[in-house]
Amino acid sequence: MNKTSRIYIAGHTGLVGSALLRRLEDDGYSNLIVRKHSETDLTRQSEVEAFLKAERPEYVFLAAAKVGGIWANNAYPAEFIYSNLAVQTNIIHASYVFNVKKLLFLGSSCIYPKHCLQPMKEEYLLSGYLEPTNEPYAIAKIAGIKMCESYNRQYGTHFISVIPTNLYGPNDNFDLETSHVLPAMIRKFYEAKAAGRKEVEVWGTGKPRREFLHVDDLSDACVYLMNNYDGNEVINIGVGEDLTIRELSELIYSIVEFEGKLRFDTSKPDGTPVKRLDVSKLNSIGWKATISLERGIEETYRWYLKNSVF
Ligand code: GFB
Q: Is the bond preceding residue 170 a cis peptide, omega within 30 degrees?
């Protein structure tokens, strides 16, 4: 990409899309193309083709997706598989039709098998059955990866796929039902402290392990890979370290300075026991995460206090 390349960021209002927009603007890319859902419904093929025909982007960051935490994935399986399949299929195919030079598709680490060898190497994809709570979403994401690979093989396109670990940061979803664990924890501890409550509920046993990457690190890695990676294999993006949900809760507990007790609600699902990415491939081509979990959570908490929408 050069600074005047026509770059389309699909999903620019979300956690990942807004971080990509910030990053590309900061890097001086001046020809950024974005569309609100009200302007172009990405689930409608004709609208996507009309938009790409008119705008002719050279590069596409496919960050448009229906995402959510364990509860949302489990509660809305039809929406998760349909909207992700529709949006990614329309954009990937239209990018081929209108000669997009390069496209970056974002998957998620939940595509690896539920009981995958750890840390999870790219070649472990499709080596076992998926975590049931997010299987519809994971199947859609795997279809997107295979679509990119297939278009590269048949048409010689340059569509790369990246597999990020669990993400967090500014502009995240803080809804207590549909969000991921980290923003939910920040809001729960903050609201309990503000209300003088003595207890915060944590879903599950607290034993599952998760890896977290700040979304500004992710956007940095995506811009780096768009400029420096052209392989037909997926590539993991993470930090390579994880912690238990109990340890995460205790870290956020101290950052928010809550003084009550944790109560674990084991009626809620734990999901995948552990999902740590192997990031040696990414590190070997010269990229490494820089934002520590503690600093990242502190920044996100400050962002939440400043922008809390509730
Ligand atoms: O972040 P999370 O919803 O997604 O949950 P997954 C991670 C762990 O945190 C689970 C526990 O074991 C939850 O039970 N947890 C504890 C909580 N308290 C809470 C809470 O208040 N809210 C939430 N949300 N979790 C998702 C996939 O799995 O990971 C998605 O379903 C996607 O498709 C995403 O891949 C990155 O890590 O379990």
A: no
Q: pLDDT for 238-296, tens place per residue?
A: 999 999 999 999 999 999 999 999 999 999 999 999 999 999 999 999 999 999 999 99
Single-letter amino acid, residue 67? V
Q: Provide the whole-model pTM.
A: 0.97
How far does residue 151's CA lie from ligand 1's centre (Å)?
32
For residue 3, the CA-to-ligand 1 centroid distance in Å is: 37
Ligand 1 proximity of 206 Cβ (cutoff 6 Å): no
Q: Is the CB of 70 under 6 A from ligand 1?
A: yes
* Ligand 1 neighbourhood includes 120 CB (under 6 angstroms): no
| Separation CA 249–CA 13 (nearest Å) | 28
Q: How much distance in Å is there from the Cα of 73 to the middle of ligand 1?
A: 9
